[in-house]
Amino acid sequence: MATMSPAPAEPDVPLLEVRDLEVEFRTRDGVAKAVDRVSFSVGAGETLAVLGESGSGKSVTAQAVMGILDSPPGFVTGGQVLFRGADLLTAGAEERRRVRGARMAMIFQDALSALNPVLTVGAQLAEMFRVHEGRSRKESRAKAVELMERVRIPAARTRVNDYPHQFSGGMRQRIMIAMALALEPDLIIADEPTTALDVTVQAQVMDLLAELQREYRMGLVLITHDLGVVADVADRIAVMYAGRIMETAPVHDLYKNPAHPYTRGLLDSIPRLDRKGHELYAVKGLPPNLMAIPPGCPFHPRCPRVRDICLADRPEPAPLTGADGRELPGRTSACHFRKDELHA
Ligand SMILES: Nc1ncnc2c1ncn2[C@@H]1O[C@H](COP(=O)(O)OP(=O)(O)O)[C@@H](O)[C@H]1O
Ligand code: SF4
Ligand SMILES: [Mg+2]
Questions:
Q1: Rg of the chain on CA atoms, in Å
Q2: Which atom of ligand 2 is nearest to the CA of 303?
């Protein structure tokens, strides 16, 4: 039963549950269905990776959840965003602000455009404590230094007076993590947090984020197009394609035994040491234009296993069952032939 104020933490109410979310963009060129009946959930202390190629609707999903959708042209046209059981899409303005301002935080790909270029990082961090917690200037300043130390910025005490552009990309991303952590939120949504960084720095920032997520027991939605980065940090994965969820699974099950041809294609495209010298297999073809999503299964023009039914009937995400006929916990696939895929 949905209530308007957040229910106390009940074990069976997920921290965040997105149900049948729909977002469309209305532009001069037509209507793009960027998010189409997307459902997923994240528990407290859990990391869900949302994986998909560029243009699959990952960022738009995050923006709709956070209430920062560019509207117009974007509109949420259906679904629910339940935070501890209360729907943020229908909650009052004050309730929405409270949850999205303090209980949820977001980390973006590009820290340089997310941070204010004319304020020192210390001033920006301190402002969080002044505005949201009503702390004094001096106290807020001390908290800012403390946070910078938490995200391991060397010489935090002096660097607190520097401006965003004076930091390297990796250090800036740490500062954005610090900003997100400031109010100790229950949930962080990180949208490609390491994509713009060098590979070695990527790993360091990802490790830091994972470590802090465990320490603070936050829920984390980690959005990425890179299957390589999620293996070590995610508990579960949701695979998106053309604005829809194609497969959800605990991370190790997905790697071992994918149940959707698109997931299989993504897995085959990861460079592997034992395949050095062989040509990289990437999923053939291009993702669809969201203004003209193919009928039936949106993946059918690229699917190596396509059959007649795929061209006409849209497969919905459905639970998977094991050899003993029992449902496999946390596993769904939106493929007409999910059983064959699973046991392939
Ligand atoms: N501001 C916008 N105006 C019009 N269409 C948009 C806008 N933002 C996103 N879209 C549409 O939504 C699709 C998904 O975008 P996005 O969620 O950013 O993809 P990604 O999975 O790469 O994060 C885009 O391909 C585009 O069709
Ligand atoms: S429903 Fe058909 S086209 Fe879609 S992924 Fe499954 S086999 Fe491929
Ligand atoms: Mg994106």
A1: 21
A2: 8
Rounded to an integer, the average pLDDT of 263-280 is 66
Residue of 335, 338, 340 with the most ligand 2 atoms within 8 Å of its CB, for mutation:
335
pTM: 0.92
**Closest C-alpha to 238, from 16, 38, 31:** 38
- 3-class secondary-structure state, position 343: coil
Whether the CB-CB separation of 317 and 237 falls below 8 Å is answered with no
Cβ pair 48, 236 in contact under 8 A: yes
Taking the centre of ligand 2 as the mean of its atom positions, its distance from the CA of residue 305, in whole angstroms, is 6
Task: Please give the Cα distance from 90 to 105 (Å, whole number).
Answer: 20
Percent of the chain with pLDDT over 90: 76
| Inter-CA distances, 344 with 234, 237, 337, 341, Å | 25, 20, 10, 5
Comparing CA positions, the residue from 130, 238, 142, 258 lying closest to residue 183 is 130
Of 334, 342, 341, 338, the C-alpha closest to 37 is 334
Whether residue 5 has pLDDT greater than 60: no
Residue 2, phi then psi, degrees to nearest 5: -85, 135
Ligand number nearest to the C-alpha of 38: 1
